[in-house]
Specification:
The complex is a heterodimer of chains A (219) and B (224). Helix content of chain A is 59%, strand content 8%. With 219 residues, chain A is α+β, with helices and mostly antiparallel strands. Chain A is globular. Chain B has 224 residues and is an alpha+beta fold. Chain B has helices at residues 14-25, 42-47, 67-77, 89-115, 118-137, 152-172, 183-193, 196-200, 205-222, and strands spanning 5-9, 31-34, 56-59, 62-65. In chain B, helix 1 (14-25) runs antiparallel to helix 6 (152-172) and helix 4 (89-115) runs parallel beside helix 6. The relative contact order of chain B is 0.12. Classes of the chains: A alpha+beta (219), B alpha+beta (224). Chain A: Pfam families: GST_C, GST_N. Chain A: It is found in: Cytoplasm, Cytosol.
Chain lengths: 219, 224
């Protein structure tokens, strides 16, 4: 079952972070390979010919693409420890729904927050906060979305926390002021080793965003 | 206590139809509620407050939105044949990958094909053709996407491509999705439509053509 595990990734990718966390939660040893997205490796192009994107999880030479699909794969193969999805079908459906919600909303809205200005940015900020508030509602009084432990939705969402500082600086707002419960949840997640060692430093991410803004000619 | 299963759907939606097909294949009795999307019912808004969309499955009062999430829920709750998702984790990941590809990439390309003309439309059709070829590759050496019998990915492809897209292409007056260009997919289509519940779940063609033409006109005049 063990077999060689390789992860093709890019350090600031929230999607790559999800897979890193899942692998760490399960205690799986793997080889991490940093991709230069301006000069993609032959291996990446061969393993993900359809999208040519990271992250790509390679297990025993076979590729699994798309971060949430990778997390489910990891959960299903290494099913003897640290379950990420609940066993009840209804609870699984709810977890999948909210992970899908994170995919549909948080990345695009967050991107708009740092990429745009003026009214477009104000609208993006408003919708971004609204989406986070919906997630706060789903979290409720639980320690994690997964209940007592990290679950699928926690893994799907927490990587974005490493980008919150960059969003806040670019958007000139405080996410904690609007969503204190969510930030409390995020800090709780960061106390877990699997999360702490999978997320990059927020200052580094902010520097990266500033660099991207220069490259794209965004003020 | 008997199971109570309700499906909030819309007759022209391939997402709604895919859930119906899964329920029918598994022989699960359900009550179907047709939604008027221009006047959504309070029940729909109650059962899917986040997205306010169909389809929504309600099982013994518990609601599940998002068609792909619903398909997995159905498979995990009613474990009789046909088993929709492969048992092997690697094969499951492949099935999920292609379902996502259809819902995210192919859908966007079909929109481009619908709303552009001339050279732009030609380019969109070319892009769509490439995407369909990638999908066709998945069928090579197998009677169904799922293997020996109809499964999750067959349900997704059938509703999107076989029924919905072929009607759309006719309404648009284009003919890019043909047996000549996609022999393997068309061979698969013949097998799939021979399954009686699949025919029952087909979007009624004439009504659909009228619906598509009306909607396209409305969207085009709104954007002028």
């Amino acid at each position: 079952m063990e077999g060689a595990v390789v992860l093709l990734d890019f350090w600031p990718s929230m999607f790559g972070m999800r897979t890193r966390i899942a692998l760490a939660e399960k205690g799986i040893k793997y080889e991490y390979r940093e991709e230069d997205l301006r000069n993609k490796s032959d291996l990446l192009l061969q393993m993900n010919p359809v999208h040519k994107k990271i992250p790509v999880l390679i297990h025993n030479g076979k590729p699994v693409c798309e971060s949430l699909i990778q997390v489910q794969y990891i959960d299903e193969v290494w099913n003897d420890r640290a379950p990420l999805l609940p066993s009840d079908p209804y609870k699984r459906a709810i977890a999948r729904f909210w992970a899908d919600f994170v995919d549909k909303k948080i990345y695009d809205l967050g991107s708009k927050v740092w990429k745009t200005k003026g009214e477009e940015q104000e609208t993006a900020k408003k919708e971004f906060i609204e989406s986070l508030k919906l997630l706060e509602g789903e979290l409720g009084d639980k320690a994690y979305f997964g209940g007592e432990n990290l679950g699928f939705v926690d893994v799907a969402l927490i990587p974005f926390y490493s980008w919150f500082y960059a969003y806040e600086k670019c958007g000139n707002f405080s996410i904690e002021a609007e969503c204190p419960k969510l930030i409390a949840w995020a800090k709780r997640c960061m106390q877990k080793e699997s999360v702490a060692k999978s997320l990059p430093d927020k200052e580094k991410v902010y520097e990266f965003v500033l660099h991207l803004k220069k490259v794209y000619g965004i003020e | 206590m008997a199971d109570e299963v309700k499906l909030f759907g819309m007759w022209a939606s391939p997402y709604s139809r895919r859930v119906e097909l899964a329920l029918k294949l598994k022989g699960i009795p359900y009550e179907y509620i047709e939604e008027d999307l221009s006047n959504k019912s309070s029940l729909l808004l109650k059962y899917n407050p986040v997205h306010q969309k169909i389809p929504v499955l309600v099982h013994n009062g518990k609601s599940i939105p998002e068609s792909l999430v619903i398909l997995e829920y159905i498979d995990e709750t009613w474990r009789n044949n046909p088993v929709l998702l492969p048992r092997d984790p690697y094969k499951r990941s492949i099935a999920r990958f292609w379902a996502k590809f259809i819902d995210e990439k192919i859908l966007i390309t079909t929109r481009k094909v619908s709303f552009t003309t001339g050279k732009e439309q030609d380019q969109a059709m070319e892009e769509l053709s490439e995407q369909l070829k990638l999908l066709e590759n998945e069928l090579k050496g197998k009677p169904y996407f799922a293997g020996e019998a109809i499964g999750y990915l067959d349900i997704v492809v059938a509703n999107f491509l076989v029924f919905w897209f072929r009607n759309l292409q006719e309404a648009l007056g284009i003919n890019m999705f043909t047996k000549e260009r996609f022999p393997i997919i068309f061979e698969w289509i013949e097998k799939v439509v021979a399954i009686d519940v699949v025919e029952v779940c087909r979007i009624p063609k004439e009504r659909h053509l009228v619906y598509i033409r009306t909607r396209l006109e409305a969207i085009k005049s709104a954007s002028k």
